[in-house]
C-alpha cells in the first residue's frame, strides 16, 4: 500500500487553512494534515513531522513566506514547498522558485488545480499554474525577466519593499513583520542602495513598473491587516 501524503499547511488565516484542509481530506492519497499560522511554528512542525509537502502562504506576519522557504530548504534540501498566494505577478514566482520552492499557484485557482499541484510537488516534480507558466515561458523567450535590482533584495528586504511600496510607514511595516523599527529602517536603507533610489516615491515607482502594486487592492490589504 502506497504511503499517504503528509501535509503541512502554513497560512495565518484560519479560514484558509480550514478550507484547504477540508478539500485535501477528501483525497484518499492524503494522510495527516498539520497546520501552522506563521513561519516560525512551521519550521518547528516540519522538524517534528517531516511532511511530504508544505503548502505555504507568502504574506504572513513574523518571519514571512520567503524567509520561511529559505530556512526550510537550508535545513532540508529535499523539502518540497508549494506556494499558494494571492500574488499573481511573475516577480513572486521567480523569487519563490529561486528560494527553493517547487511549485506556485494563486489562491483563486480551482480545488482541482490545488490537488494536481499537491500530487506533482509531493512526487518530486515542479508545478506552476498554467497561466503563470505560460507567462514565464514568454518572458524567457523574449528575454524579459524581472529587474535584476529586485532580484538582489533578500527575502526580508523584499517583504519590507512590498509593504513600503503600498503605503505603509516604516513603523507600520515593523509591526506587520514583527520586527523592530530600527531593523526595518536598516532594511529600508539597504533596499534604497540596491535599487539606486533615494525616496519612497521612487520605491513605489519601481514596484509599479514590476507590477507588484497591482496585487495589493483593497481586499488584499484587508487580508494583510487581519
From TrEMBL:
<keyword id="KW-0238">DNA-binding</keyword>
<dbReference type="GO" id="GO:0003677">
    <property type="term" value="F:DNA binding"/>
</dbReference>
<dbReference type="InterPro" id="IPR039420">
    <property type="entry name" value="WalR-like"/>
</dbReference>
<dbReference type="InterPro" id="IPR001789">
    <property type="entry name" value="Sig_transdc_resp-reg_receiver"/>
</dbReference>
<dbReference type="InterPro" id="IPR000792">
    <property type="entry name" value="Tscrpt_reg_LuxR_C"/>
</dbReference>
<dbReference type="Pfam" id="PF00196">
    <property type="entry name" value="GerE"/>
</dbReference>
<dbReference type="GO" id="GO:0000160">
    <property type="term" value="P:phosphorelay signal transduction system"/>
</dbReference>
<dbReference type="GO" id="GO:0006355">
    <property type="term" value="P:regulation of DNA-templated transcription"/>
</dbReference>
<feature type="domain" description="HTH luxR-type">
    <location>
        <begin position="146"/>
        <end position="211"/>
    </location>
</feature>
<dbReference type="Pfam" id="PF00072">
    <property type="entry name" value="Response_reg"/>
</dbReference>
<dbReference type="InterPro" id="IPR058245">
    <property type="entry name" value="NreC/VraR/RcsB-like_REC"/>
</dbReference>
<feature type="domain" description="Response regulatory">
    <location>
        <begin position="6"/>
        <end position="122"/>
    </location>
</feature>
<dbReference type="InterPro" id="IPR016032">
    <property type="entry name" value="Sig_transdc_resp-reg_C-effctor"/>
</dbReference>
<keyword id="KW-0597">Phosphoprotein</keyword>
<protein>
    <submittedName>
        <fullName>Response regulator GacA</fullName>
    </submittedName>
</protein>
<feature type="modified residue" description="4-aspartylphosphate">
    <location>
        <position position="57"/>
    </location>
</feature>
<dbReference type="InterPro" id="IPR011006">
    <property type="entry name" value="CheY-like_superfamily"/>
</dbReference>
Amino acid at each position: 500500500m502506497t504511503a499517504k501524503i503528509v501535509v503541512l499547511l502554513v497560512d495565518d488565516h484560519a479560514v484558509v487553512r480550514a478550507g484547504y484542509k477540508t478539500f485535501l481530506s477528501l483525497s484518499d492519497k492524503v494522510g495527516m494534515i498539520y497546520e501552522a499560522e506563521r513561519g516560525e511554528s512551521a519550521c518547528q512542525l516540519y522538524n517534528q513531522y517531516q511532511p511530504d509537502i508544505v503548502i505555504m502562504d507568502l504574506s504572513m506576519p513574523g518571519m514571512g513566506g520567503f524567509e520561511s522557504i529559505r530556512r526550510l530548504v537550508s535545513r532540508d534540501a529535499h523539502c518540497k514547498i508549494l506556494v499558494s498566494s494571492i500574488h499573481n505577478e511573475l516577480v513572486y514566482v521567480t523569487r519563490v522558485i529561486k528560494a527553493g520552492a517547487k511549485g506556485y499557484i494563486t489562491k483563486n485557482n480551482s480545488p482541482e488545480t490545488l490537488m494536481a499541484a499537491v500530487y506533482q510537488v509531493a512526487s518530486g516534480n515542479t508545478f506552476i499554474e498554467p497561466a503563470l507558466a505560460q507567462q514565464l515561458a514568454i518572458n524567457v523567450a523574449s528575454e524579459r525577466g524581472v529587474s535584476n535590482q529586485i532580484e538582489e533584495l533578500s527575502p526580508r528586504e523584499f517583504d519590507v519593499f512590498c509593504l513600503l511600496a503600498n503605503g505603509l510607514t516604516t513603523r507600520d511595516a515593523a509591526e506587520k513583520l514583527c520586527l523592530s523599527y530600527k531593523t526595518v529602517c536598516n532594511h529600508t536603507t539597504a533596499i534604497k542602495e540596491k535599487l539606486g533610489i533615494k525616496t519612497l516615491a521612487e520605491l513605489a515607482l519601481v514596484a509599479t513598473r514590476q507590477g507588484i502594486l497591482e496585487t495589493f487592492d483593497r481586499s488584499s490589504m484587508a487580508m494583510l491587516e487581519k
